[in-house]
Amino acid sequence: MAQYTRVSGSVGLITLQSPPVNALSAAVRQGIVDLMQRALSEPEVKSVVICGQNGIFCGGADIKEFGGQMSGPPLIPMIHAIEAASKPVVAAIEGIALGGGLELALGCHYRIAHSKARVGLPEVTLGLLPGAGGSQRLPRLIGVPAALDLITTGRHVTAAEALKFGLVDQITDHNTVNVAVKFAQRVADQPLDARRISTYPCLCPSDVAVLFEEVMQRVRRTARGAIAPIACVQAVRAAATLPYNQGMERERELMATLFTSGQARALQYFFFAQRAVGRWSMPSGARWDTSKPRPVHKAAVIGLGTMGRGITVALAQAGFSVVAVETQEKQLMEAKQKISGMLERGAKRRGVAPALDKINYGRNIQSVADADLVIEAVFEDMALKKKVFQQLSAVCKPSTFLCSNTSGLDIDQLACQTRNPELVVGMHFFAPAHVMKLLEVVYGPKSSPLAVATAMQLGKKIGKVSVAVGNCRGFVGNRMLKPYLEQALFLLEEGATPEFVDQVLEEFGFAMGVFRMSDLSGLDVGWKVRMADGLAMPDPTTGQPTRLRQGRRYSPLGDLLCEQGRFGQKTGRGWYQYDKPGSQVAKPDPWLHSFLDEYRARHALVAHRIDHQEVLERCLYSMINEGFRILEDGIAAGPEDIDVIYVFGYSWPRHRGGPMFYAATVGLNKVLERLEHYYQAHPDVPSLQPCHLLRKLVASGSPPIQKWREVIKKVRSQL
Ligand SMILES: CCCCCC/C=C/CC(=O)SCCNC(=O)CCNC(=O)[C@H](O)C(C)(C)COP(=O)(O)OP(=O)(O)OC[C@H]1O[C@@H](n2cnc3c(N)ncnc32)[C@H](O)[C@@H]1OP(=O)(O)O
């Protein structure tokens, strides 16, 4: 909806009214069309101002409308009519002007922005391009290089940057609407021909062809298979090379292809999934909107290895006072130096002062006594962690929240070491912890809603996407990784190479294939866990590595590499070889290929030809099957939680929406059928056995992902 008021006698003020972000819904578009006609027909009105209610100009098209039948007046003719108007139209931009919101502003003759406003064309992040003239008007207004940057990245720019680009005409610290109204009065009688951006020539640098080629190459390299960034470059190229009307036609064609693509649907699903994870719930019924967090002023981190350092930096950068504890003097000094360096580099990038004074270092656990929340980040060893939790419980205030950065150990066992187990939760960060966006907040059976709410809020404050998950081995992310890694090893046993498996996964869109990723993380990490679990040992009778553990197929390949000191990048050898320890350039290793041949011969395994389809289906469907088990067990509340974890924590390609959304797009019956096929071929691999929830969803007619929760509820109630 939109409201019309006459201000100062001669200015027609149109206010967009569609909370929370004044998106351009059908009703809003209808309102703009009607009220523009009214303003143009009233003789007393000499100029028009368009603004948004509640200090927000416009968040763009209403994304919720994309899924259904579009109705109401279309955006493009509406914006053309504004540009063609006989009276000056001024956009008063407060808060945000994004996507269709900025395109609307570009159709106006002038743009006045508040100094705190942000503008941008983020359509690419939704699998689209600025399809309401944005791809044609923006390069005409600010030039091709700047427009390519904004449109292909979707980044938001500040009002100051927008002014520098010439994207807005003026910025103000005062009431933007008042300033825009005065401005509109001043320009009421001025000619408008020079203010219609669609009539501008598109000024191009002399080497524009080279520029487009370079940008296209960069975009293809980084897009990981996403099609929207490429279409964005093509649309801007049309602006640079074609007259406006033909450019608009090209924009329309490209947009039509994107709009109906699976990628746009996946990215739009993911937009809402990111927001849905904030509305967490626990099986007890506790929820985000009924559980209040307690403020945290002072936080503490115990253990300053790689993870502890990253967590300390993330907290200090967000303005928290942090006590950082490392018991060994040498490690403490080293950590202090590294943390200061990280803070200084981060501050330089953001143009702010480094938050060095936010951190107090100590060697004694006593120094965390008055912290409101402590995050333990010591080595991944249950006995050690238990000891730390006992000590923390003894020294901390009774109200202190005690959190563990474990990547998969039992939170309940840690909670049992403390006086107040209800204040214990897991806070599973991902390395590097000051960079990676994901945080799994893990509640155990004793964790209180207060503790979950507080950890979730802390995560938000330090800029993380936090997902509340239940307590089980590996939580959500690492639990699903297990069958994925396992299948990758089985594929090597059966004839594949690490290079081939990685190539297939990277073509699918992962930033790194499973073996490159393992080399980067360090093969010894999983090896230590398997040793602690009693898995990575040779058969006591034969001394040979056994391919069967606890009645299930087991691949000792990773263990055998570790026994050779091949820990990945850090030792210069792993699934690949590297020029030197620490190098990141992976090269195929002939030694590894011979090793695989010998291994197969020793175990009488006959290598067969493994194709793309088998790699993808076995790695991904086994992981997805585990995802369904996680939903069935109530460890994740809904498929969105899993998808957000996988995109932010495990480089799952965002344009595929996440593993559970991917399963829905492939078709649940197909996933089920292929799992049945592979399970029949490998009956000693339980992770390939289709789980009950998947069967139930298929039996229920494979409902859309938004309806899965209803089936999940039924399945859980039957268990
Ligand atoms: C052939 C077809 C031709 C069509 C041509 C027209 C095409 C136009 C393209 C577009 O305009 S696409 C949309 C472009 N806009 C965006 O991408 C903006 C998306 N929104 C955001 O980035 C953020 O929400 C925000 C606006 C910066 C606000 O962030 P904040 O952190 O303050 O709040 P949120 O929690 O993110 O959002 C609050 C609430 O609002 C909902 N919402 C936000 N934007 C939209 C939108 N454009 N449409 C519908 N709903 C929107 C969001 O989902 C939240 O609600 P929820 O209930 O919590 O989910």
TrEMBL record:
Subcellular location: Peroxisome
Any one GO BP annotation for this protein: fatty acid beta-oxidation
Pfam families on file: 3HCDH, 3HCDH_N, ECH_1
Any one Gene Ontology molecular-function term assigned to this protein's record: enoyl-CoA hydratase activity
Primary location group: other
Record-annotated 3-hydroxyacyl-CoA dehydrogenase NAD binding domain positions: 298-471
EC number annotated for this UniProt entry: 1.1.1.35, 4.2.1.17, 5.3.3.8
GO cellular component, one term: peroxisome
The keyword Zinc is annotated on this UniProt entry: no
Residue stretches making up the 3-hydroxyacyl-CoA dehydrogenase C-terminal domain: 474-578, 615-702
Pathway: Lipid metabolism; fatty acid beta-oxidation
Ranges that cross the membrane: none
Catalytic activity: (3S)-hydroxyhexadecanoyl-CoA = (2E)-hexadecenoyl-CoA + H2O; (3S)-hydroxyhexadecanoyl-CoA + NAD(+) = 3-oxohexadecanoyl-CoA + NADH + H(+); (3S)-hydroxyhexadecanedioyl-CoA + NAD(+) = 3-oxohexadecanedioyl-CoA + NADH + H(+); (2E)-hexadecenedioyl-CoA + H2O = (3S)-hydroxyhexadecanedioyl-CoA
Keywords on record: Fatty acid metabolism, Isomerase, Lipid metabolism, Lyase, Multifunctional enzyme, NAD, Oxidoreductase, Peroxisome
UniProt keyword Isomerase present: yes
Signal sequence bounds: none
Family assignment from sequence similarity: In the N-terminal section; belongs to the enoyl-CoA hydratase/isomerase family. Belongs to the enoyl-CoA hydratase/isomerase family.
Subunit structure: Monomer.
Full protein name: Peroxisomal bifunctional enzyme
